[in-house]
Amino acid sequence: MTLKFDNRYARLGDKFSVPLMPDPLPDPELVIVNKDALEEIGLDNISNQDLIEFFSGNRIPAGSEPLAMVYSGHQFGGYSPQLGDGRGLLIGQVISKSGSLVDLHLKGAGKTPFSRMGDGRAVLRSCIREFLASEALHHLGIPTTRALGVSTSVEPVRRETIEKASMLMRYSESHIRFGSFEYFFYTEQHNELKELCDYTIENHFPEAENAENKYDALLLLAAEKTASLIAQWQAFGFAHGVMNTDNMSIIGQTFDYGPYGFMEQYDPYYICNHSDDRGRYAFNRQPLIGHWNVQALAQALSPLTSKNVVKGALDTYQDRFLNRYHALMIEKLGLTENGPDDKALYDDLLDLMEGYGVDYTLFFRALSNFQSDDTMSSFTMSRSCADAFEPWLKRYKNRLLMEKSDDVKRKKSMRRVNPKYILRNYLAQIAIQQSEIGYHNDLHTLYNVLKRPYDEQPEYDDYAKEPPEWGRNLQISCSS
After folding, report:
1. Integer CA distances (angstroms), 92 to 108, 110, 249, 264, 431, in order
2. Range of the domain at 352
3. Which pLDDT does position 293 carry in this prediction?
4. What pLDDT digit, counting tens, does each position of 142-151 carry?
């Protein structure tokens, strides 16, 4: 196994991490592999046996320097002074074929000094859920960490029931979190805070180097990337579930998948995490929580930044979110020009969708079929609420006429931004249940469908349908 390691984070020293080898899984089995990503990082010629050993912690490549990263964070609004990698290790950083620096992170790798009362393991269902979600979001075009593969074993671990210890190998340009900066701020290690900021700027935000105050620039860039990410979550109906500051990536990627969910029937108050009984991380609160988290990051960087930069960061976040979300919603409607009433057009549509329980993804996909001479009676959605939608469709038709929209071109452009296939929780649940008894075909099929979310794939139409009654409004546990 030949990988080109360049372990820059490890060189920051023992204030930032603890060197540690993974606790390997016994008798490991390979569940699923992301072959496209293997090629990207230079593992495309590796044998299945070597992959099994690597993804289960049984083989550590030469040149790697496994470590557990230290960080803290605000969890459900309260500050936790020390968290850190409690069940995952940064195995090392490699240079990809494109020349970029990539973190390889093994989740479920055993106990670390930050495990607290945990056993340091992941279970198969959580590994599968993260594998599927990270790849689903990637192929939708939403920034995210990615998954390389999942392994499982005969080792038992206790959660709500006895489950199989498993591991997920994921990769990203960075595993630095908002909480990484908070740790050094609240422990008053300001020299180390500066070191971490310098490392982050050098490796992830080189455009900040020439700014009058590069730490101001780092904060503003992080605010902008976070806002853009959350705008995409909102436009695609994705709920993260646990937007704690230790789950927020400094480079604006979707990070640390737990009880996430794609919204099905449009519900702005959608809560995907059954532990979130107060709805702090409900779907419609994600933009506000992103704003709150940027403020927490600004506080953590305050020893290095200008006095007035906090307001600038929060304004940057708000402006970027509103502009990005508006642009995405206009695209979803197939509009190419900005009109004065466009926000009201999609706001009123969302109100209708909420009132009548319309499936968010299916409606926008079906809307691409709308012809400028259509009425609701010929539109292929929501027959039972046709009268209610008719006035809105008249407004939409007039808006299309205003910019002389071409039906054929509009349909093509709308299908590039409105997916037919999303990762519905019930589909993930079926795949997990089959994999837990040793049958991985459903998982592999679902993964391949999600790699082409905008294509018709008529042979997989069933994967695009609304969930059966038992699969509606599933809430997922944080436990993994």
Report:
1. 16, 16, 18, 38, 30
2. 333-415
3. 98
4. 999 999 999 9
In a domain, 197, yes or no: no
- The residue count of the chain comes to 480
In a domain, 104, yes or no: no
Rounded to an integer, the average pLDDT of 281-303 is: 98
CB 392 within 8 A of CB 352: yes
Residue 337: which of 256, 401, 265, 262 has the closest Cα?
401
Catalytically annotated residue among 85, 216, 246, 276: 246
Banded model confidence at residue 160, pLDDT cuts 50, 70, 90: confident
User: What tokens were used for 152?
Assistant: 């499982």
242 located within any domain: no
Q: What is the average pLDDT score of the chain?
A: 93
- Residue 244 inside a domain? The answer is no
- Name the β-bridge partners of 149: 33, 169
Using the structure block, give the residue that is written with the tokens 């990005």: 324
d(CA 171, CA 134): 10
Do the Cβ atoms of 135 and 150 come closer than 8 Å?
no
461 is a catalytic site residue: no
> What is the number of structural domains in the chain?
1
State yes or no: pLDDT of 397 exceeds 60. yes
